[in-house]
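Researcher: Final request for today, and then I'll write up notes for the group meeting. The sequence and the SMILES for zinc ion follow.
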Amino acid sequence: MAKKKSKKTTTKPQVKKAPTKEDESLVTFNISKQKNFSEWFTKIVQIAELADMRYGVKGFLVYQPWSTIAIKRMFDLYEQELEEFGHNPVIFPSVIPESNFQVEADHVEGFAPEVFWISSAGSTGMLEERLALRPTSETAMYPLYSLWIRSWRDLPLKLYQSGKVWRYEGKSTRPFLRGREFIWIESHNVFTTMEEAEAQTREDMQISINVMHDRFGIPFIQFQRPEWDKFAGAVHTYAADTLMPDGRFLQLPSTHLLGDNFSKAFGINYMDDEGVSHPAYQTCYGPAISRIFGGMIAVHGDDSGLIFPFEVAPVQVVIVPILAKKQATKVKNYAEELRMLVKAMGYRVQIDASDKRPGDKYYYWEMKGVPIRLEVGRREAKEDQITIFRRDNREKTIISKTELEATIKKVGADLNESIKERAQEFFDSRLASAETLNELVEHIKSRKMVKIPWCSIDLDGENCAEEIKDQLAGAEVRGIDVQETKIPSKDEKCFICGNQAKCFVYVGKQY
Ligand SMILES: [Zn+2]
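Model: Predicted protein-zinc ion complex:
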C-alpha cells in the first residue's frame, strides 16, 4: 500500500461553477469545538441535518435521516449485546393508568413533577382514569410481571424494550442531549436473590463498556450515585458520566438496584421449591440512545464537523468521482463499479454524483462525518487505483483496486481505535484531584471533573453537597467511581464539614 501525503492526486476540475448559498455555508463550517462548544453543537445539528428544530413543541425533536440511520445502528448494536446477555425483547404500551403509576411511593414522588398526563379523549371528554405517558416503564411492566412470575422456575426474567419516553423537563432543552421526549432502551430484570440482582447491575455496567466505550468510542466513569441523587425507588443507582468538550459532564446510562422495593409494592413474588412465597429482587437499566448519540457526536467531532465511528456512520464510504471533460464516462463507470464492490462487501456506500466541485464535495462529506472517502479520477480509472481518504486524520493513500476490501476494513478499524484514544486522552486531561477547597474551586473554574475526599454519600452528606452547589455555581457531587480502590487517609477531611473523609467522590458541572 503506497502512502502519500498528497495534494497532487486530485485532477483539477475544469468547469468552475459559482457555489450556491448552501455550498458556501458548508464549505465554511469551521468552528472551534473546544472554544465554542455550544455554538459548534447547535450549528452541526443544523448544517449536518441531524435534527430539525422547527416542530414547534419545546423539547420535541424531528430526527432527520442522517441521525436516524446512525441511531438505528446504535439500537442494533445495543440490542444485540443485551440479547447476548440473555435479555429478550418486549413491547409495552406507552400509557400507564394512574392507579398503577401511584403504587410505589418513592417512585411517584420522584417522577410526578415530570409526567405528561392524558386526561381527555375524543368527544366524550374526560377519561375515567388519567393515563400517564410513560416517563419510564416500571409501573407499566411490573403489574404484568406479578402475573407472569409464579415460581423460582420463572426466574431470572430479563426483558427489555426499545421505545420512547416522555418527561416534562423544566430545564432548558438541547437537541439529543436533553429533551422532553427521548428514545431509549430499558431493561427490567427479576431474580430470586439480592446477590443476583447486584450481579446484574455489574453486568449492565459491563454492557455499557462493551457498547458505549468499545463500539461507540465514548469515554466515561461509572459512579455509584449518592443517596440523594439515586433513581426514585432504587436501593442504589450506578450511572456513567462522560465529559463534553467544555468539560461539563453528561449523564449516560444508569442501572438501578431496586432490591425488593417494587416487587413488594407490585406483588412480584415467587414460590421457592418448598412452596414458600418470597418477594423477588429487581434491577433496571436505561441507555438513552438519543442522548448517547448527542454525546457521541460531541465527543468525536472536530472543527470541520462530525466524525462517526465506522460501524455507526449513516454512510461509511462515499465515492467522489472527479470528472474532467475527457473520459468522464470512464470515471463514472469506474465509480459505479467501486460502489457495487463496496456494497457487496456489506458497507453503506454512496456516490456523490452532484455537480459540485470536488473540493466542495470533500468539505461536505467531511462535515457530515463519513469515515472513508474514495476519490476517483482519470488516473485512478486508468490504472485501477483508488485514492482513499480517512476522515479523522485526513490521511490520503493510493491503493490498487485489489486492496480495496482489506483497506476499508483496516481503515475503519484504525479510525475507530484512534478516535477512541483521542476521546479518552481528552477525557483524562479534564480529570483532576484537589486537596483543598481552593484547589477544588480553581479546577471547577477551569471546567474539570475533580476528585475530592468526602464525608459520606449517605443522606448525611447531602448538606455538604448542597453547600458545594452554592459555593461552586452549581457543581454537583457525582458519586464514587465504582473502580475506586483507594480510601482516604486519616488526615483527609471533607472540605465542607471537616469530618473524617470516608470516600472519594467526583465533583463537576452539568452540561
Ligand atoms: Zn461533609
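Model: The CA atoms of residues 201 and 428 lie 25 Å apart. Confidence is low (pLDDT under 50) at residues 1-26.
Researcher: Thanks, that's everything.
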